[in-house]
Amino acid sequence: MTDLSQLLHSQFLWYALAAGLLVAVVSGPLGCFAVWRRMAYFGDTLAHSALMGITLGFVLHIQPTLAVGASSCILALLLVYLQRRQKLSIDTLLGILAHSMLALGIVMVSLLKIKTDLMSLLLGDLLAVSTQDLVLMLVASTTIGALLFILWQKLLSFTLHEELAAVEGVAVEKIRLALMLMLALLIAIAMKVVGILLITALLIIPAASARKLARTPEQMATFASLLGCLAVVLGLLASVLWDTPAGPSIVLAAAGLFLLCQLRP
User: Fold this and answer.
1) Around Cβ 247, how many Cβ atoms within 10 Å?
2) Which of 71, 100, 120, 224 could bond to 53 as cystine, CB 3.0-4.6 Å?
3) Which among 254, 143, 102, 108 is positioned nearest to 193, based on CA atoms?
4) Residue 153 CB-density burial (10 A; 0-12 exposed, 13-18 middle, 19+ buried)
């Protein structure tokens, strides 16, 4: 109990909790759109580009979160461009870009002989969140939250029926780009929480869980955020008590909540 009491008074633990909650709150609504539009693979693609972003950050001496955010946004723009120009399905384009970006990142790390902790990149390093990381997460999550609030109805119309939304005057291409850029920002800040390999899980699982509980899109987004926050708290608690990796523990907690939600008739 003494050890737990000491931990509860540790700054790093409260930083980790704050960072996890910031990501969970905005990943809930965005995860709903990812589920509705079947964009889970898009999240994986952006996550795979994170390694290249970190490499560029080392080379250009840029803060890793900023570098990952920039590379994810560039990849989102590239995907929109290729989707317009090429007669390939979105799944095919995502498959090509995901593995190409991951391979490029690994090759760059090798060629430039960059010394970095790959395990923390792959699985997250939530307990090592710094003040600078927390500030960047706050700015990014606030930006995403504000955009979601402003564009909510247009995003819903775009998700339900693109052609009808265009007829009603919704700028479909701009809304599509806004959604992709918000996901790119989320990927950049979520990497510190759950790592490259598990980002999509944090995005999708709470939203999929909330689908069982909600009757309206707004309810689903709210429940997804709450379930994501609960998963962060439970996962972080498990990490502290049993010395397990924080990122995977959070994802397992989210998976456990998903199973509980499926028991609801």
Assistant:
1) 30
2) 71
3) 254
4) exposed
For residues 131 and 116, give the distance between their C-alpha atoms in angstroms, rounded to a whole number: 20
Whether 187 and 53 have beta carbons less than 8 Å apart is answered as no
pTM for the structure as a whole: 0.88
For residue 231, pLDDT beyond 90: yes
Query: Could you give the CA distance from residue 19 to residue 209 in angstroms, rounded to a whole number?
Result: 22
Q: Residue 101: which of 38, 56, 35 has the closest Cα?
A: 56
Q: List alpha helices for the chain, DSSP H.
A: 2-8, 11-36, 40-48, 50-60, 64-85, 90-111, 118-123, 131-160, 162-167, 172-194, 199-211, 217-242, 246-262
Q: State whether residue 65 is helix, strand or coil.
A: helix
Stretch (H or E) spanning 264: none
Q: What is the structure's pLDDT at 33?
A: 94
Percent of the chain beyond pLDDT 70? 92
Q: Looking at this protein, which amino acid is placed at residue 257?
A: L
Other CB atoms within a 10 A radius of the CB of residue 240 amount to: 19
Task: Assess whether pLDDT exceeds 60 at residue 127.
Answer: yes
Query: What pLDDT, on a 0 to 100 scale, did the predictor assign at position 62?
Result: 83
* DSSP string over 199-235: HHHHHHHHHHHHHTT-SSHHHHHHHHHHHHHHHHHHH
pLDDT tens readout for residues 36-58: 988 877 777 877 777 778 788 87
As a whole number of Å, the end-to-end CA separation of the chain is 39
- φ, ψ (nearest 5 deg) of residue 229: -65, -40
